[in-house]
Amino acid sequence: RASHCRKKLSPTGGNRMDNKETTYCSVTDIFGENVFNDTVMRERLPKKTYQKLKQTIREGRDLDIETADVVAHEMKEWAIEKGATHYTHWFQPLNGVSAEKHDSFITAPMSNGKVLMSFSGKELIKGEPDASSFPSGGLRATFEARGYTAWDCTSNAFVRQDAAGATLCIPTAFCAYTGEALDQKTPLLRSMEAINEQALRLLRLLGNTSSKKVIPSVGAEQEYFLVDRDNYLKRKDLIYTGRTLFGAMPPKGQEMDDHYFGAIPERIESFMKDVNEELWKLGVPSKTQHNEVAPAQHELAPIYGECNVAVDQNHLVMETLKKVAVRHKLQCLLHEKPFAGVNGSGKHNNWSLVTDDGINLIDPGKRPHENTLFLLSLACILAAVDKHADLLRESAADIGNDHRLGGNEAPPCVISVFLGDQLADVMEQVLDKGEATHSKKGAKLQTGVKSIPDFAKDVTDRNRTSPFAFTGNKFEFRMCGSQDSIGEANVVLNTIVAEQFADVCDELEKAKDRDATIQKIIKDLMTRHQRIVFDGNGYSEEWRKEAARRGLADIRSMVDAIPALASETTVALFERFHVFTREELNSRVEIEYDQYAKEINIEAKTMVDVASKSIVPAVIRYSTRLADSINQVSSACPEADTSVQSTILKNTSKLLAKTQKALRALEKAVADADQQRGSEKRAQYFHKTVMARMDALRQPVDELEMIVDKDLWPMPSYGDLIFEV
Ligand code: ADP
Ligand code: MG
């Protein structure tokens, strides 16, 4: 670090209150310094090797072993200079977090007792973690343990440095011995190939001969909470489940709207500074940071990049937020709903399609043929989202998100598309008259196709309530959960749009009059799928009714969303583009049900543990204190009025009895879960029966928290957690 950090402030010279020495780093110097990126490759690899590797990256070919050996050697030398002793294949199995298995570079000791540091091409390209310890949803039996990780050379290797040492991390895909995908990356890379192929076909049919590649571009805005780490460590529910399972609302919540975009406190700012520096070194272009709606809630957004890199980088963002928080005696909560009654956290997935020569298919653009391309792309996206709304909804399903979606703080569970005034008007004209003749306002764009309307640029207003909003030159899918990988959502987006492009291309290839056919397709698609467009308030009850009238699905929970992952429509879609096989989809269904049941089981058991070991004893202590007071006051002064103590004692005892009853009922529900056969039934049981009993236990406990002496209550309150940072 030191080499690039220029200025140091003396302990007294800075503007910081804690008198700690602050170092200021030049961002351009540190950016990407821990990444084996193009600059490093060009510098360190022999020219021939460099060219071969670049060709492999560009064309997606296999890397020959001789080239891999040279790359591996140089990568190791570079990593060792950065302090690395180990390397790891870094991958994203289906348990939601990233995984790694560290090996050191050392060779077997030689006869002189010394070792060498080595790293071969084979070790770079292929790893072999034990696949049986990762979820496979029945694709692998535990005795069939073979799984492989394979280098994704389109995502750069990097060195992760921290107090524990430095490690060379190699982004990899993770597959079973038999080739099935066991991770997020494999299908993502397949879906990127599908959209690339179909979008290029479309471009060619519209006369584009220059673009060579179409890349889905993604920018993920990450929301998170920060709480004081000492407070966090006193909350078993946060430790075990990532969210609070008990907790009464503090007198002040977020009703004053004073946190959103508010000034960032110094403690948090210094945390953000460290996060940014770590991310910049890892080549993550962290750009925007601000406070979010809820107290203690914040957001970080990087500059968008290639889809698979953006997905990897979002994992790095999540890892880094957590790691750096601990250094600042904070805890980063990535859960979608850490606090009931307070806004939850999501991840906005900004998505567009950009060619290697810089054409964004979703940008209205300036030149006529691009506008045709835009309107056609838009019509295709509307159709794709409408056709596969349930699948898109599923891609954002995770357990924490169930508490957030549809709760007047996040998009509803109904998928719809927001277009904004001008595009909606254009679309209406197409629907009414077969063609649009004017645009509402703003600078005109001319499409050059007679019946395709002119319209103005950058006129979309914001609509925070829409799950899928057009925002100028991209779509923003806002349903994703804050702790979930955005991999799945992008697999779905890429593939459903690829399918629609493919269908349109098939039609255009047969067409005699291509221009006329394009106009007809735009009109047909907009007509058939207009029900998916909605520009009003997505949080309102009227919209739920209207959506039902339009026949749009309103899938309220993860367990109800899962079946869409292996419906016949979905299987046909994914098999057509070789993104998933039926077996892979079925395995993912199994994994999701299984994870759902397991996580709710942990939540329920944590509630039982905390209630019986901490809350009930605390309430008994409090009751005893009240009873003692009544006895002592009465014996000291028989005429004294002890009615206050008596009333509180009566109330407390009643709630205590209610708590104990709910506790037993929850225990029983958890024990009975073993009788549920089959993963779907089990998940549904946890969703319906167990969760209802969890709610029933929480209710009297939260009431008790408002009554019992604060010094007796066994854990920090919501107020302590969200206002003490
Ligand atoms: P907004 O205010 O509309 O949310 P921002 O400029 O803050 O827009 O961008 C939010 C995220 O979207 C950022 O990560 C940004 O890099 C990303 N983004 C911007 N343009 C595109 C695009 N064309 N495709 C994908 N992501 C984009
Ligand atoms: Mg945004």
Automatic annotation (TrEMBL):
UniProt keyword list: Coiled coil, Ligase
Record PROSITE patterns: GLNA_ATP (PS00181), GS_BETA_GRASP (PS51986), GS_CATALYTIC (PS51987)
GO biological process entries: glutamine biosynthetic process
GO molecular function: glutamine synthetase activity
Keyword Ligase tagged: yes
Domain GS beta-grasp: 85-179
Coiled-coil region(s): 649-676
E.C. designation(s): 6.3.1.2
GS catalytic domain mapped to chain residues: 184-615
Uppermost EC category: ligase
Family, per entry: Belongs to the glutamine synthetase family.
Full protein name: Glutamate--ammonia ligase, catalytic domain protein
Organism of provenance: Shuttleworthella satelles DSM 14600
Gene encoding the protein: glnA
